[in-house]
Amino acid sequence: MRGMSGHELGAFLRARRSQVTPADVGLPTSGSRRVAGLRREEVAVLAGVSADYYARLEQGRETNPSGQVIDAIAGALRLGIDARWHAYRLAGLLPESAPTHPHDQVHPALLQLMDAFPTAVAYVINRRLDVLASNALADALLSPLADPHRMVRSLFQDPAARELFADWHSVARDTVEALRLAAGHDRHDPELAAIVRELIAESPEFAALWRDHSVSGLGRKTKVFNHPDVGCITLTYQAFDVQATDGQYLLVGTAETGSTGADSLALLGSLHAAGRRDDARPSSS
To answer: Going from the N-terminus, what domains does the chain have, and what CATH number goes with each?
Structure first.
């Protein structure tokens, strides 16, 4: 609905303006500047709108910008495609997503598909980045975490996550950017809002990343794991929208064929399978 997210849009524009330097947009860099990034007046000139109008947008007093205006400001601020769509949503220019349900159900056909990836890590997540379902190899990979299903909370609250993810800071940044993008989709999701409130209060690192207002989709990512059982594993992840269920994504992680990481991943799967078999055996009396 138009006019409901002016303050969110204003906060987003202020944060992104602070991240663009005059040199980024071909403006002179000499002289003292009292603000980080561009001045409001500079963004207004670059976007072809009045300085007063742009100020009202940042202050949340103008809540019905046109798509043309958002396009122009996105260009001035050098926004990427994910950030542009996020700005459109905050401006009320796109229909809101259907609300997601706390107990997301994964279709049985998708569960069967994941199990058909014996050499790949596969799991289904929702926009809150909760793991809704996973195959055996994904279970093995994430086994060091106390609660691998609540991934965002685990990343910032579970010390094991900082050991498991070799480049924890990059993973944390990507995660918060994806969660911020989700907040644009589901602005009335109480569970997402609760996650954000909790982590802002408990994690200064999360709070700083959240204030940055950067957004990005899951896309294609490379992650390096330091698993306590098998050592280093490098995986390339690709995210796929689950067409039949809005707000669900299939993540598939693969190691390069013939690499040490592929061997380590295969070993991890074997160890995990052996552990399950041992747990299933009755104890001898």
So the answer is: 6-90 (1.10.260.40), 108-280 (3.30.450.180)
